[in-house]
Specification:
Largest interface: A-B, 26 and 29 residues
Oligomer: heterodimer
Structural class of chain A: mainly beta
Number of helices of chain B: 0
Shape of chain A: globular
Order of helices and strands of chain A: EEEEEEEEE
Largest sheet of chain A: 5 strands, mixed
Distance between the termini of chain B: 37 Å
Helix content of chain B: under 10%
Chain lengths: ~110, ~120
Amino acid sequence: DAKTTQPNSMESNEEEPVHLPCNHSTISGTDYIHWYRQLPSQGPEYVIHGLTSNVNNRMASLAIAEDRKSSTLILHRATLRDAAVYYCILRVTRGSQGNLIFGKGTKLSVKP
Amino acid sequence: GAVVSQHPSWVICKSGTSVKIECRSLDFQATTMFWYRQFPKQSLMLMATSNEGSKATYEQGVEKDKFLINHASLTLSTLTVTSAHPEDSSFYICSLGGVTSGGSLTYEQYFGPGTRLTVT
């Protein structure tokens, strides 16, 4: 799986939007972009994924650059419960039996 | 989505003893489960891939005789840390692989809540 680059940490104010960037310049045509997050002392949880088009779900939005070399996870209104480490991960297939390769992720802090 | 439980959620043991951690899939059958380890302020590192009915596949640097994995059924995998030492203190997390829904593999991977192991 190709490598991703994320900032180590970001801060946000409560109820403001948060844009978490991810660079993946070596992404291949078959790589899906997945985002997971890990709250303190918990296992990771799935957030969102996409291939080429922007995606929305109840948790977040995913904006994918036209050349697919970068993407941005958007939390529309950050809450204190969104404070977590966010991981951007590339997967070869949309659904796979393979393990996930975690980078260092971005630690998001949310201030009240 | 799939619900994954781990037991115990935390455990303290003395050096030299063995500890068993259970990972259960409560509502899906999983032919494959993964075991990760996470040290403080670090990311998750894959330890091994557990396959139902066969031997686990270990990542490089992970001692298979120290970290015994048994995938006895499609809903249960266990990790036993044998002769634990303080350096084995870590957060152990399992996840389900190959969860199918409607006949196709799902895009989500489902993780357990983790087990905090402290070896004194």
